[in-house]
Structures are given as C-alpha cells and as structure tokens.
Amino acid sequence: MRLYNNLINEIKSILSGANIVSGKNALNVSKKISVIFSSETAFELGGSQKPCVSGLAVSSDIKFSNSVHLFGDDLNKIMSDSPFGKFVFIQIEDFENEQDTFNKIKELEALRYHLNIEGFMTRASALNMREQIRVSKKAIKSGVAFGDYGTTLLNEYFKFSYVKSAEIYFVTNFNDFEKLNSVAKKINQTTSALNHIFDNVMFDCSTCNLKEICDEVDGLKELHLKNVNK
What we know:
CATH superfamily: Bifunctional carbon monoxide dehydrogenase/acetyl-coa synthase(codh/acs), Chain M, domain 3
Number of domains: 1
Oligomer: single chain
Shape: globular
Order of helices and strands: HEEEEEEHEEEHHEHHH
Largest sheet: 5 strands, mixed
Distance between the termini: 20 Å
Strand order of the largest sheet: 1-5-10-6-4
C-alpha cells in the first residue's frame, strides 16, 4: 500500500520541527467508555472551537521509528482549551489482496473509537477530521505527558499482528493549521475513495465527487479500474 506515501511525507515535512518525546508511565487502557465530566476536566485539546485536525495513513514500504513526536507545548504547559492535531502513520504488511489491505485500514481507523485510556476522553469525527480529547485534572496532577499517551497508543496499534512500525505526531502550537487541514483532507479523501472502490460503487469519473483525489494520488484510478473490470 503506497497510496498515502506522498501525503505522509508531506505531513512529516510540515512538522519537521517536532521533538521526539518518550513515555515514562504506562497508562491504563479499558474497554469501558471513559467519561470525564466538565468539573473533572483540566482542558480539552481541540475544544472551544480551536483548530483541530487528525489523520491516519498507512504504508507498506515506509519504515517508521516507533516514536512519538510533539510540535508545541506538552500537557503540563497547557492551561486552557488548546488547538490540537494528531497524525498516526503505520507501516503494515504488504498484502497481495487490496481488499485485505483496506479491511486492515478500517480496523486501524476503528481503534480510536473504541480505545479508552485513563485520564483521556476522545470525541472523534472522521467526516470532519477532528479528534477532540478531554484531559482530566487527575492526569495532569499525576504528571502524564504526551509521551505517555502516545506510547500507550503505539502499544495498542502493535497488538495488530500486521503492524510493523509506526509514528504518532501531536500538535498543540502551530501557525498554519490550514496547511495541516489541507493534507488531512487528502488523506481522508483517499480513504473515502478506497471505500468507494471496494464497495463496488458504479464507475463514472465524470460524476464522481472523488475524481480530483483519484487524479492526484498515483494508483487510485488504476485500482478502481482494476476492481471494476473483475
């Protein structure tokens, strides 16, 4: 799977000034829904209509460093609702069957809707490319940092046997969220186009609202033609 490669490299280039942060504490993960009430909340990442963007992209041939990157302030420096960006890049096995690959992408995408990490409450919208996260006062008081949160996320992704390497980028201070939004939109459109292809939607480029991304991302149109002609 190489459809996302250029988009991954573009985000990494935009965030080239990010620092690598390490995790010191293993955070508890639960299957129970994590609810953090307003009275228990220190702040919300992406809250109060602040800029907020997220994206997940995979590759079969980019080897990632299994690290967590931060562009901006860590959790202990944030005093109120903050802008927020989160990008997850994952190297997966190169499956011969494209449908299998897409099923794995959906599986990885779904994790953020079901993962409950103690001290954090996520509200995600793939449609709007937003992932707002409430952070509890208790977590901040105990010294939890992005390195801890990100390392916990990486550990959860590595539970999937087909995940070979990964990187996570968090963004809190950035002067051009529109630039990040633009690339995240293309990531989202690429995933939507794959869904379009594997749902065997009628092939008609002239009427398809995903024509622009198919024309831009190498291999998408060819993949669609290949599946239509099966």
